[in-house]
Amino acid sequence: MGLLFIFVEMEITKKLAHKNKMVMAIIVIVFLGYNFFIYTQEPPIEAQKMSELAILGEKIYQDNNCTACHQFYGLGGYLGPDLTNVISAEGKGSMYVKAFLNSGVKTMPQFNFSEEEKEALVAFLEAVDETGHYPIYEAAQNFGWVSIKYKK
Amino acid sequence: MNQKIPFLFLLLGLSALLLGAFFGVLITLQYIYPEFLKETLAFNRLREFHVSTLIGWLILTATGGIYYYISKVLNVPLYSKKLMTIQFSILLICSIAIYFSFLFGKMGGREYLTYHPIISFPILIAWIVFAINYFKTLVGKIQNWPVYLWMWGTGIVFMIYHFSEAHLWLIPSIRENFIRDITVQWKSYGSFVGSWNMLIYGTAIFLMSKIKNENTVGRGKVAFFFYFLGLSNLMFGWAHHTYFIPTQPWIRIVAYAMSMSEWIIFLSIIISWKKSLNQQDKIKGNFAYKFLLATDFWVFVNLFIALLISIPYINLFTHGTHITVAHSMGTTIGINTTILLASAMFIAYKENAKIIESNTKIIKLGYWLFNVALVGFLTMLMLGGVARSKWIFLSDKATSFGEMQTSIQPLIVVFLFFGVVLFIGLLFISIPLIKVFLNKVRKEKSL
User: Which residues 105-144 on chain A approach chain B with CB closer than 8 angstroms?
Assistant: First the structure.
């Protein structure tokens, strides 16, 4: 009787192990398909490809780790303000940004960017600004869901 | 089997914990005194010492524990000690390289991986070495893997995948499209945090099964149900970080649905709570168990916060504020750190119970300082987040960022106080552990 019990028990765990492998296979397949869509998705806006100058600006942004203090779409460090729409914000814009960069106010480090580097950073911030709105002030909500406003 | 390397992992991990917490204190000082170290190590570099060092604590300690458990508790001989040594050496050299990269300001990476991206390559190799060693050691050696072996295995594999994914921006066609790029970037972060969680939560389940001495823990249907739920969240749940990036709406809807599935975990914790409390008396005085009880509490608190802020309409207000920091520090400190301290205690107790027992008082004191300080610490972050959110959504546009920042200064001072207490608590807990592991490293003859 005892032996039979052990046998049944073993069969059950074997079945479970088999089932686990099946579940794993299915999840992984879904995952791969999903990743493919993420990597190739076209965002529902017609933002231009980033120009070479903007890409250079992004490199400068990374080399100086601006993200330690600043955010895009709320993602980044919080010692400074979000920069997603600093270009199109009222009273701000490219001249304002340029003036800010080497100012070293408050905690912002004292940078010594050349005119070209400032141009590149501004081009990058302009490219980001074109992609959307953040923060979102006019969000429609429904069962906790939020519809966001896209840039045309 | 004599071997030093698992203890070296643990030692390096614990040193990273103390050092990382210390850097945390320094960067908080920069929040309060903008001029502090501004000329020598401005915030954009000092912050990364803090972040990278503490990621090191999580990864190194989890890895050391896994090696130890496989070879000394499960008694499965390692496929290759040499590979383990290579893995350790690579990570040690990379840690030093990362520090140099911050010190000299030669950075260029992205959030969390802000060091020079070339250092990522050997790190990736180290993970692949780990994967080879892990699977070669265990496949076919243990029948019907308990869930923690699955978790460790998937943690390693998905770490390799998502760590690589975090570097896709190096490919020009990804980089040109800002929205796609930032989505992939934060997808990878969500998922590699999920991957180290697999390593760490696997460790928690392993410890539970050993402490309670119940081999059934981690083998039943329920355990695997939660494992697959967690794995699906690792894969698809990341997008609640990106609700407000203008991606295709379906990506955001999948994320919402996936995140909400975690309510099941939340409910199951409440239901099983009473059960685990009854067990408590049996295992009194066991520090590993004590730390896991703290984990239980912090899982409850953090999961509740996480679930709330994963609701898009709540996220709208909490995203981009210190409430997100409270969430990420709450999980890395409250959950990950308590599990890894439990793991280190378990090992230390096994290796040299005397040292741990003779330090009972100080460890207990450290334990309470740690937990109480963490409550205050997270509360200050939440309050800071509320203030920032109010500034974003409710203030007139005339209030500048600087004014808002000045208004939360008192909170940051209290935050600093709790941070220092947290650091002292960690010191009390870690020093006896470090003693045990140093002893081991001195005595063990072979690597």
Answer: 105-107, 109-110, 127-128, 131-137, 139, 141, 144
pLDDT band at A8 (very low <50, low <70, confident <90, very high): low
Subunit contact B244:A145, Cβ cutoff 8 A = no
Position B251 pLDDT exceeds 90: no
Tally: H helices and E strands in chain A = 4, 4
pLDDT band at B258; cut points 50, 70, 90 = confident
**Fold entry, domain A52-129:** Cytochrome Bc1 Complex; Chain D, domain 2 (1.10.760)
ipTM: 0.91
Q: Is the pLDDT of residue B6 over 90?
A: yes
Mutate to test the interface with A, among B44, B118, B222, B242 (most CBs of A within 10 A): B44
Closest CA to A149 of A26, A76, A31, A45: A45
Tell me the pairing of strands A145-147 and A71-72. unpaired
Hey, what CATH topology would domain B278-447 get? Cytochrome C Oxidase; Chain A (1.20.210)
Identity of residue B138 = L
Average pLDDT over chain B, rounded to an integer? 91
Contact assessment for residue B232 and residue B194, using Cβ atoms and an 8 Å cutoff: no
Q: Which two tokens stand for residue B47?
A: 């912050």
Nearest 5°: CA angle at A129, between A125 and A132? 150
Q: Cβ of B312 and A144 within 8 Å?
A: yes
Give the C-alpha distances (Å, rounded to integers) separating A51 from A47, B60, B299.
11, 40, 45
Can you tell me the mean pLDDT for B60-74? 96
Q: Which residues of B touch A127 (CB under 8 A)?
A: 178
Q: Tell me: pLDDT of B276 over 70.
A: no
The two structure tokens encoding residue B214: 């119940």
Neighbours of B277 (CB within 10 A): 11
Q: Where are the domains of chain A?
A: 1-41, 52-129
Query: Which of 46-105 (A) contact B at CB < 8 A?
Result: 47, 49-50, 55, 58-59, 62-69, 71-82, 90, 105
B325: nearest Cα among B252, B263, B383: B383
Q: Could you state, in order of their start, the residue ranges of all structural domains in chain B?
A: 1-141, 145-258, 278-447
Cα gap B227→B27, rounded to integer Å: 37
Bond into A135 cis (ω within 30): yes
Check if A22 contacts B (Cβ < 8 Å).
no
Give CA–CA dist B430/B10, Å, rounded. 11
> B259 and B237 in contact (C-beta within 8 Å)?
yes
C-alpha B412/C-alpha B325 separation (Å) is 13
- Indicate whether B445 pLDDT > 80: no
Question: Two tokens at B105?
Answer: 């300001």
Alpha carbon distance A143, B364 (integer Å)? 46
Q: Give residue B271's identity as a one-letter amino acid code.
A: I
Say what the pLDDT of residue B248 is: 83
